[in-house]
Sequence to fold (918 residues):
Amino acid sequence: MAQRLIVIGGDAAGMSAASQARRRRGRDDLEIVVFERGHFTSYSACGIPYWISGLVPGPDALIARDPQTFRTTYAMDVRMRHEVTTIDLERREVVARDLEGGGEVRERFDDLMYATGAVPVKPPWADTDADGVFGMQTLDDGAALRLWLDAEPQPRRAVVIGGGYIGVEMAEAMIQRGLSVTLVESGDQPMSTVDPDMGELVAEAMRGLGITIRTGLPVTGLKQRDGRVSAVVTAEGPIPADVVVLGLGVRPNAALAETAGLPIGPTGAIRVDRRMRVAGMPGVWAAGDCVETLHRVSGLPVHVPLGTHANKQGRVAGINIGGGYATFAGVIGTAVTKVCDLEVGRTGLREREASAAGFDFVSVIAESTNRAGYYPGARPMTVKLIAERPSGRLLGAQIVGWSEAAKRIDTLAVALWNGMTVDDMTALDLGYAPPYAPVWDPVLIAARKAVDALAALDR
Amino acid sequence: MAQRLIVIGGDAAGMSAASQARRRRGRDDLEIVVFERGHFTSYSACGIPYWISGLVPGPDALIARDPQTFRTTYAMDVRMRHEVTTIDLERREVVARDLEGGGEVRERFDDLMYATGAVPVKPPWADTDADGVFGMQTLDDGAALRLWLDAEPQPRRAVVIGGGYIGVEMAEAMIQRGLSVTLVESGDQPMSTVDPDMGELVAEAMRGLGITIRTGLPVTGLKQRDGRVSAVVTAEGPIPADVVVLGLGVRPNAALAETAGLPIGPTGAIRVDRRMRVAGMPGVWAAGDCVETLHRVSGLPVHVPLGTHANKQGRVAGINIGGGYATFAGVIGTAVTKVCDLEVGRTGLREREASAAGFDFVSVIAESTNRAGYYPGARPMTVKLIAERPSGRLLGAQIVGWSEAAKRIDTLAVALWNGMTVDDMTALDLGYAPPYAPVWDPVLIAARKAVDALAALDR
Fold:
């Protein structure tokens, strides 16, 4: 009799795992049952802001593979709109509710893949169910917002609450649609994923686009009129709003796992080992936005909900479920984003994180250009490096610049991944031609500056 | 009494060395005399094609620092249009000829910095002194070509001989100026700096721009009429030409060094150690396009004339002359170029080079896109990886693609520099956002494919 794999959650991590398991084990060897509570499988949540702005047609374009493809090509039993409500690890069974047809099913498993992703952080105030208030996590959220933006009376004033990636990208999307946009952030800066000095460059660019930025301003509630949102309430008074987008971040969707007794780590996410096995529970796997992972620089567990990790982790789990051997090596916090034409990249630790992890370090900021200074389209590029003292090991890097800036963070990410010192980095053989770089690449200029800063301190 | 540094050659390597030496030693400690036979110091030869095409104003924009700046800011005795004709190592003197004023000067030195660069390879046929025939090595060459292209009768038919970087970039420049352009290459492919399969992608793109490409076709001579070039003669008949650009590559300009007894390596360039000291000759230094350097992958000496190396090597020499300690770590053959909108990057060894160096390897080519497939402007990107067998160590990589493709070679260059295996590389934490990459970065897709290819061979 075939063994059975049950997958809870049909997005990046779950479906990567299921696909890899299928590649290694045929249908006679392994049955695969997938429960997904939503309407879609394997879609790009990261693409939603571009669908909202109108840059990308959606939602179909954002779907990598639909349920039917998984059924026919991969021989999986994919059950959409089914929410798993109970995991019984002793009986090795799950109970799932059919959200549309009603009723419950009970299914046994040999292997269980837990891939429920993340859920938006709920604000601490009421009235979030007023019409015109949107989370931005799923394609359904995106579809609802699109309808609201297109319906009469057309919203003109948007308020985005929270200045993380989603908040910043949604602010951009709304301004591109012609709305007036205010971004409200309780902390000191939007784009707190980079250090304040680099974040200020992003804030400046956003203001240049016409986005109003209010920082250090906690939201205390929402106002509504006839069931429609009318304002965001803050300590400094109400901000009128016809549409409100919540970008307060996400947390691991681990409630069901916790109830079932899966171990939860200090980040609130599920603890897994390098093979994506849930610690101490044979045959139980987890991956994606619901697990925590090792940060290779700080050595600490972190929760980094990002599609690229979910895909890699799911693949690792699936290879292992399929009888192979694979491990997930951890993360270094690489991320890139776009704020209209401005590009932002980061990797490793920010200053605050480096301090928290106990490092002594220096920081340098180097101004350069993305192309030879004389080449048309040359634009400023700012590179920040954080290097351990006195070793010179790279701990973190951030880039803010214009065209072709963001992905250069990968150069620094690979250097950091390999434990290079800034001194080593000054020797790197990087590509040079006037359309792509000055003869001293911005990365090399920054490394040289860091070497000088370290030398000055040790003098 | 101050010691004296004499620098032969006032471009990238020589002036980087001189500047670094000055930073560390004041004018009372070190006199610096620079002899430069041309009209310019420290200019970007790589920018000449863009000046020819009209994209960049020239020649001033291409000059990083002029002689007067070096004289006033760096307290150097810079003598333009002076050609050093003799180096007397026993007396520690050089003799230089004043090319304009006439006469000779004789100057003693304590340290000698040899930085004469490279000279164009001379074709084996005559008539290269006909009007309308141009090498493309110096700003003077660029100025002469610009005059010719603007003068009456305006040239309409251009032939570029040689399909290396300069040839390809000059073909692009001429087609952008509206000339009809034929590129003649004696080898099997233009852009032989990448493997034939990747070079064919470049050739296709060039043909798409309207450039006629003739490969496997050695040139046997030129024809002229009334002193003006009229055709390029080949085994398959003459190709009419109003202007001919020679892109036959360059060789180290080491004749004077050889006469003086400096050691010449197997590449025809000067042999130096890691501190840029000429082997066995205390106080004699060399850097830039006239020296050979270690290829970190093959372990062989190579001659790679490129501004980025010249700058780094000159800096290393200057730090050492200044009393500091620095080494040049060698090269891995990273290079990027642009053929209109097409971008090409390479690092490490090509297949032919890997074979010649004795490696057993596999090659894979992975097709992907520069952005998420659904994001506007997503274009094909082809990544080729060459990995040692059975270790999986990355030996070389090539990228051909459209916007934002070329500089991604840096990601692979840093991986290669650090001796990563393709298996290690699949775990890399690279930046992901829809405007910049698919959720599986092209680099990761290629690494996975290489892992699979290695596994299939060892099965």
In short: Residues 361 and 389 of chain B are 5 Å apart (CA to CA). Chain B has three domains: 3-119+251-321, 133-248, 335-458.
